[in-house]
Amino acid sequence: MIFTLILYKVIFGERIIMARRVEEVVKQETKVSARDQELSLPLYKRAVKPALSSLASHLSRFVPAAREASLAQKMIEAGNPGNLTPRELLVIKYLLAAGCTGGLWSWAGLLNMHTAQCILMAAAGAPLGWLGPDFFLKYRAQNRKDDVEKNLPDVLDLLTVSVEAGLGFDGALMKVVEKARGVIADEFIIMLQEIKMGKPRQEALRNMADRIAVDDMSNFVGSIVLADKLGISIGNILRMQSEQMRQKRRQRAEEKGMKAPVKMLIPMVLFIFPAIFIILLGPAVMKIMKAFTM
Question: Which of 98, 201, 207, 258 has the fewest CB atoms within 10 Å, measured from its CB?
Fold first, then answer.
């Protein structure tokens, strides 16, 4: 039996492998129905995103253009989480405000609070739900800026080595995208896509600086644009920029180190010093109280 199986695999083994490969290729080329494609999407894209878009379309007449532009800039600086539009984010803010208000009102009712306390709890829920997305965007934007300020000198070093090795600036950017990870690599990908679509390099660089909104990145983009206009060697510019970025990063670290003792003073005064005073002065206070009571 075993000899028969071995002989069968030796004779027909290549045909079996070829048939499996053909079957896999045919399966990949078979068309998937629209319903199956729709069901394969996550719930957010199938239900939540269309609902937000539908509600946002009704807000178009109530949202001022300046407010929408300001919110769009905040979302861009935060990396546009969820690929939302400003109007969709406003819908989320309204829903959260209403949800927090109703939730705190119900919670206060379950605790058998008075009507005035229920009203206060509900009133506190509205600004909490309304400002929650703003705090989230601010937190995301600050994390992105910190990541850029931390990793930009290393990225510039890699760019400098790639340019001096003979690669063009676009090729050096591709090398950074392959080797690096993080906000800068993602923004380089977007910038290279814009260049491939026909946008001038200078405009794509300025758009990247506007999306990140970090002074170090803006200085880097300005230097590259100026070097491109004047015909200056990009390698020398990149090396100078890398040294300046490292010096700024060192200065920021020293500044945070100098601020640490001041920030530590608050928890020490509020929590550590009272405990020390109780331990040191507690027995003396007890003896003095006994002396006066005798």
Answer: 258
**pTM for the complete prediction?**
0.66
Can you give the CATH number for the domain in which 164 is found? 1.20.81.30
Is position 271 within any domain? Answer: no
pLDDT digits (tens, 9 = 90+) for 15-55: 666 666 656 655 554 455 555 555 555 555 555 666 666 66
pLDDT digits (tens, 9 = 90+) for 157-167: 888 888 888 77
Q: Count structural domains, the chain.
A: 3
- Count other Cβ atoms within 10 Å, centred on residue 273: 12
Question: Any idea what the Cα angle at residue 177 is, between residues 172 and 178, rounded to 5°?
Answer: 95
The 3 state secondary structure assigned to 144-193 is HHHHHHHHHHHHHHHHHHHHHCCCCHHHHHHHHHHHCCCHHHHHHHHHHH
The number of CA neighbours under 13 Å toward the Cβ of 148 is 26
Whether the CB-CB separation of 191 and 197 falls below 8 Å is answered with no
The pLDDT, as a whole number, for residue 29 is 45
Distance CA(237)–CA(185), nearest Å, equals 20
Q: How far apart are CA 169 and CA 163, in angstroms?
A: 6
Domain check: are 200 and 217 in the same one?
yes
Top pLDDT among 62 and 104 is at 104
Specify the residue for token string 């509020």: 270
